[in-house]
Amino acid sequence: MENTRHNLLKERWSVESGEFFIQEEPAIIMSCAGFLRLQKSAEEILGVDGAAVLFYEAGKKCGIKWLGVWKDEWGLEEGALIRAMEEYFAELGWGKISIAREALVIKVENSFIAKNYGESEVPVCQFLRGYSAGLGEVLTNRAMDAEERKCAACGDDCCEFVLKPIE
Protein backbone atom coordinates (compact mmCIF):
# COMPACT_ATOMS: atom_id res chain seq x y z
CA MET A 1 0.00 0.00 0.00
CA GLU A 2 1.64 3.24 -1.18
CA ASN A 3 0.50 5.58 1.63
CA THR A 4 1.16 3.20 4.52
CA ARG A 5 3.51 4.73 7.05
CA HIS A 6 6.34 2.36 7.80
CA ASN A 7 8.32 4.49 10.14
CA LEU A 8 6.16 6.45 12.51
CA LEU A 9 8.62 7.28 15.24
CA LYS A 10 7.68 5.82 18.56
CA GLU A 11 9.14 7.92 21.31
CA ARG A 12 9.04 7.27 25.02
CA TRP A 13 10.05 9.66 27.78
CA SER A 14 10.99 8.84 31.34
CA VAL A 15 11.11 12.02 33.39
CA GLU A 16 11.93 10.00 36.51
CA SER A 17 15.14 8.57 35.05
CA GLY A 18 15.89 11.40 32.61
CA GLU A 19 15.80 9.10 29.57
CA PHE A 20 14.35 9.42 26.08
CA PHE A 21 13.88 6.58 23.59
CA ILE A 22 13.14 6.43 19.87
CA GLN A 23 12.06 2.99 18.65
CA GLU A 24 13.10 1.71 22.12
CA GLU A 25 16.66 2.91 21.43
CA PRO A 26 18.14 5.40 23.95
CA ALA A 27 18.30 8.80 22.23
CA ILE A 28 18.92 12.48 22.80
CA ILE A 29 17.44 15.58 21.28
CA MET A 30 20.09 17.99 20.04
CA SER A 31 19.54 21.34 18.41
CA CYS A 32 20.91 21.99 14.94
CA ALA A 33 23.16 24.63 16.50
CA GLY A 34 24.49 22.02 18.95
CA PHE A 35 25.22 19.55 16.14
CA LEU A 36 27.01 22.26 14.14
CA ARG A 37 29.06 23.31 17.19
CA LEU A 38 30.15 19.68 17.45
CA GLN A 39 31.03 19.50 13.75
CA LYS A 40 32.86 22.84 13.69
CA SER A 41 34.78 21.96 16.86
CA ALA A 42 35.84 18.69 15.22
CA GLU A 43 36.96 20.70 12.16
CA GLU A 44 39.06 22.99 14.40
CA ILE A 45 40.65 20.08 16.28
CA LEU A 46 41.01 17.47 13.51
CA GLY A 47 41.09 19.75 10.47
CA VAL A 48 38.34 19.84 7.86
CA ASP A 49 39.46 16.55 6.27
CA GLY A 50 39.77 14.71 9.59
CA ALA A 51 36.35 15.90 10.75
CA ALA A 52 34.89 14.90 7.37
CA VAL A 53 36.12 11.33 7.85
CA LEU A 54 34.79 11.20 11.42
CA PHE A 55 31.30 12.47 10.54
CA TYR A 56 31.12 10.40 7.33
CA GLU A 57 32.01 7.15 9.10
CA ALA A 58 29.64 7.88 11.99
CA GLY A 59 26.82 8.64 9.54
CA LYS A 60 27.50 5.50 7.55
CA LYS A 61 27.40 3.28 10.63
CA CYS A 62 24.16 4.93 11.79
CA GLY A 63 22.57 4.46 8.36
CA ILE A 64 23.55 0.81 8.18
CA LYS A 65 22.28 0.16 11.73
CA TRP A 66 18.82 1.77 11.32
CA LEU A 67 18.19 0.60 7.79
CA GLY A 68 19.31 -2.90 8.76
CA VAL A 69 16.70 -2.90 11.54
CA TRP A 70 13.97 -1.77 9.14
CA LYS A 71 14.99 -4.32 6.55
CA ASP A 72 15.76 -7.34 8.74
CA GLU A 73 13.55 -6.92 11.83
CA TRP A 74 10.61 -5.15 10.22
CA GLY A 75 10.85 -6.99 6.90
CA LEU A 76 10.75 -3.84 4.76
CA GLU A 77 11.82 -4.35 1.17
CA GLU A 78 13.06 -1.78 -1.34
CA GLY A 79 10.07 0.52 -1.87
CA ALA A 80 8.91 0.38 1.73
CA LEU A 81 12.48 0.74 2.99
CA ILE A 82 13.01 3.85 0.87
CA ARG A 83 9.70 5.30 2.07
CA ALA A 84 10.64 4.62 5.70
CA MET A 85 13.94 6.43 5.16
CA GLU A 86 12.18 9.42 3.61
CA GLU A 87 9.79 9.57 6.57
CA TYR A 88 12.59 9.17 9.12
CA PHE A 89 14.54 12.12 7.70
CA ALA A 90 11.44 14.33 7.75
CA GLU A 91 10.28 13.25 11.21
CA LEU A 92 13.69 13.98 12.73
CA GLY A 93 13.97 17.36 11.00
CA TRP A 94 16.96 16.31 8.88
CA GLY A 95 15.38 17.61 5.65
CA LYS A 96 13.26 16.31 2.80
CA ILE A 97 14.96 13.36 1.15
CA SER A 98 14.21 11.73 -2.18
CA ILE A 99 15.96 8.63 -3.44
CA ALA A 100 16.49 7.74 -7.09
CA ARG A 101 17.24 4.04 -6.55
CA GLU A 102 18.19 3.22 -10.15
CA ALA A 103 20.56 6.18 -10.49
CA LEU A 104 21.91 5.77 -6.94
CA VAL A 105 21.32 9.46 -6.21
CA ILE A 106 19.97 10.84 -2.96
CA LYS A 107 18.70 14.41 -2.86
CA VAL A 108 18.13 16.30 0.41
CA GLU A 109 16.21 19.54 0.38
CA ASN A 110 16.44 21.70 3.49
CA SER A 111 19.40 19.77 4.97
CA PHE A 112 19.67 20.68 8.64
CA ILE A 113 23.45 20.73 8.31
CA ALA A 114 23.75 22.93 5.21
CA LYS A 115 20.98 25.23 6.38
CA ASN A 116 22.69 25.94 9.70
CA TYR A 117 26.37 25.69 8.74
CA GLY A 118 26.66 29.03 6.96
CA GLU A 119 28.25 29.65 3.59
CA SER A 120 31.01 27.29 2.52
CA GLU A 121 33.21 26.78 -0.51
CA VAL A 122 33.13 23.00 0.00
CA PRO A 123 30.28 20.57 0.78
CA VAL A 124 29.66 20.22 4.52
CA CYS A 125 27.04 17.47 4.98
CA GLN A 126 29.49 14.71 5.88
CA PHE A 127 27.14 12.95 8.32
CA LEU A 128 24.33 12.82 5.74
CA ARG A 129 26.82 11.74 3.08
CA GLY A 130 27.80 8.79 5.26
CA TYR A 131 24.16 8.01 6.06
CA SER A 132 23.48 7.95 2.31
CA ALA A 133 26.36 5.53 1.74
CA GLY A 134 24.93 3.29 4.49
CA LEU A 135 21.54 3.40 2.81
CA GLY A 136 23.18 2.39 -0.48
CA GLU A 137 24.90 -0.56 1.18
CA VAL A 138 21.67 -1.85 2.70
CA LEU A 139 19.73 -1.40 -0.55
CA THR A 140 22.32 -3.02 -2.82
CA ASN A 141 24.12 -5.46 -0.48
CA ARG A 142 27.39 -3.97 -1.77
CA ALA A 143 30.01 -1.74 -0.18
CA MET A 144 29.22 1.83 -1.21
CA ASP A 145 30.76 5.27 -1.04
CA ALA A 146 28.94 8.58 -1.43
CA GLU A 147 30.06 11.90 -2.87
CA GLU A 148 28.25 15.15 -2.14
CA ARG A 149 28.01 16.71 -5.60
CA LYS A 150 25.74 19.57 -4.56
CA CYS A 151 25.50 21.34 -1.21
CA ALA A 152 23.11 24.08 -0.16
CA ALA A 153 25.89 25.60 1.99
CA CYS A 154 27.78 26.17 -1.29
CA GLY A 155 24.76 27.92 -2.82
CA ASP A 156 23.19 24.92 -4.57
CA ASP A 157 19.41 24.43 -4.47
CA CYS A 158 19.78 21.19 -2.45
CA CYS A 159 22.32 18.68 -1.25
CA GLU A 160 22.86 15.74 -3.58
CA PHE A 161 24.74 12.55 -2.86
CA VAL A 162 25.86 10.22 -5.64
CA LEU A 163 26.52 6.64 -4.56
CA LYS A 164 29.22 4.46 -6.10
CA PRO A 165 30.13 0.85 -5.40
CA ILE A 166 33.50 0.36 -3.74
CA GLU A 167 35.58 -2.03 -5.83
Any chance you could write out the topology, listing elements then pairs?
Blueprint: E1 11-14, E2 19-22, E3 25-26, H1 32-73, H2 78-92, E4 96-100, E5 105-109, H3 112-117, H4 126-140, E6 144-150, E7 159-165
Antiparallel strand pairs: 1-2, 2-3, 4-5, 5-7, 6-7
Helix pairs in contact: 1-4
What descriptors fit this protein?
alpha+beta, Muramoyl-pentapeptide Carboxypeptidase, domain 2, three-stranded antiparallel sheet, 167 residues, 4 helices, 20% strand, single chain
Describe the structure.
By secondary structure, the chain is an alpha+beta fold. The chain has one domain (11-165): Muramoyl-pentapeptide Carboxypeptidase, domain 2, CATH 3.30.1380. Helices cover 47% and strands 20% of the residues. It has 4 helices and 7 strands. The chain has helices spanning 32-73, 78-92, 112-117, 126-140; strands at 11-14, 19-22, 25-26, 96-100, 105-109, 144-150, 159-165. The protein has a 4-stranded antiparallel beta sheet. It has a 3-stranded antiparallel beta sheet with strand order 1-2-3, with no helix packed on it. Strand 4 and strand 5 form a beta hairpin. It is globular. The model has no long low-confidence stretch (mean pLDDT 89).
